[in-house]
UniProtKB/TrEMBL annotation:
Keywords: Membrane, Transmembrane, Transmembrane helix
Keyword Membrane set for record: yes
Taxonomic path: Bacteria, Bacillati, Bacillota, Bacilli, Bacillales
Domain Calcineurin-like phosphoesterase: 159-325
Cross-referenced InterPro entries: Calcineurin-like_PHP (IPR004843), Metallo-depent_PP-like (IPR029052), Metallophosphoesterase_sf (IPR051158)
Protein name: Calcineurin-like phosphoesterase domain-containing protein
Length: 383
């Protein structure tokens, strides 16, 4: 299935690239100058080739070079996408003008109009990409308040910090995670929850220890807990290096199991249904056996799915990630249609859902249309 998806995407990428080349060549007036033809070809190649080259050589190059290639390829892919969308919009306006005639003839027929439009397109694309790169490196804290009409023993309040979708790997390295430690240190949460996609895929030798050396510095009186996401391939095996390293640092990975927090409330962590090669996801109803539902119930689930099942089970607060809120506009329009809630707080009776758009990035190291975040939740219980 993944191979089919990649093939379809690369085919679409090729069609978009051809469209950009054709419109760019037309904008230059199909010059006869050999220098201009070579220059156009070189710029075009630098625009469209980095992404497929990065994808094909990811596992063949040294880690440092692969990281830079992944970043370069991600930037170029988004530039191709935005160039295609902007040029398509311009062509739609031109087509509409054939009937409505709202563009003055002196503008439409001026010989420099194609070059001016081309310059505007380049400025818009570069501006979006530069902003997206800066935005991806500057996470924020988003705060929520949730009131649960249940007693939690002597606990009146609980401060949770939730981090999802770090995607540690070629782009998000240990250096990029230092700001995460600083943010968590300033928040001083009682409980830290890692809501999946801690890694960007299978880690090379030694990378698990590098990741855990950072995560092991997180401090929270009530503990640090995690669930696997669909990218966390190294969390399939309970005896794998990453699992053993996390457990050694006191970070519990909850794969379809629950724990009691301070004997006052329950935390239920679910396995991800798309973690291929791992055990099948257990029904929430089965996980709830033996749990006192009179106590507050927290659910940590990478994907914001099966909401009706969680609500019916009496879950008070579900924390999820996965969506990235599309990460790159206009993909947020798609995630908004796929998920009942792709970012923020959803409340249904006593059930609350908070979805994070994530801390890191997948694919292009850019965020356009949303901010990377750490989620801070203040829970208040019945006195």
């Amino acid at each position: 299935m993944w191979g089919l998806f990649v093939s379809i995407f690369l085919a679409l990428y090729g069609l978009m690239s051809y469209y950009i080349w054709r419109r760019g060549w037309q904008s230059l007036g199909k010059p006869d100058s050999r220098f201009l033809r070579v220059l156009f070809g070189a710029v075009f190649a630098l625009l469209v080739l980095p992404f497929p080259v990065a994808e094909l050589t990811e596992h063949l190059l040294p880690r440092f070079i692969a990281s830079w290639m992944a970043m370069w390829g991600g930037y170029s892919m988004i530039m191709v996408l935005y160039a295609f969308l902007i040029l398509l919009l311009i062509d739609c306006i031109r087509l509409l003008n054939r009937w409505l005639r709202f563009i003055p003839d002196r503008v439409r027929e001026h010989p420099k109009t194609p070059l001016v439009l081309g310059g505007v397109v380049v400025i818009l694309i570069l501006g979006a990409v530069i902003y997206g790169g800066w935005n991806a490196r500057n996470p924020v804290v988003n705060e929520y308040e949730v009131t649960v009409n249940k007693k939690a023993g002597s606990m009146k309040e609980l401060h949770i910090a939730m981090v999802s979708d770090i995607h540690f790997g070629p782009v998000i390295d240990a250096g990029r995670m230092e700001s995460l430690l600083e943010m968590l240190g300033e928040l001083k949460p009682d409980l830290v929850l890692l809501a999946g996609d801690i890694t960007d895929g299978r880690l090379p030798p030694g990378a698990a220890r590098e990741l855990v050396s950072v995560l092991g510095k997180i401090e929270a009186p009530l503990g640090v807990f995690a669930v696997p996401g669909n990218h966390d391939r190294d969390l399939r095996d309970d005896e794998g290096e990453l699992m053993r390293s996390l457990e050694a640092e006191g970070i519990q990975v909850l794969k379809d199991r629950s724990v009691s927090i301070g004997d006052d409330l329950y935390l239920i962590g679910r396995n991800d249904p798309r973690l291929h090669g791992g055990p099948e996801r257990v029904k929430l109803k089965e996980l709830m056996k033996g749990i006192d539902t009179r106590k507050p119930l927290l659910l940590l689930d990478h994907q914001p799915i099966d909401l009706g099942e969680a609500q019916a089970a009496g879950i008070d607060l579900q924390l999820s990630g996965h969506t990235h809120r599309g990460q790159i506009f206009p993909a947020n329009l798609i995630t908004d249609r796929i998920y009942e809630e792709d970012w923020g707080l959803l409340k249904k009776g006593a059930y609350h859902l908070i979805v994070s758009c994530g801390y890191g990035t997948w694919g292009p190291p850019l965020r356009i249309g949303n901010r990377p975040e750490v989620v801070s939740v203040k829970m208040t219980f019945q006195p």
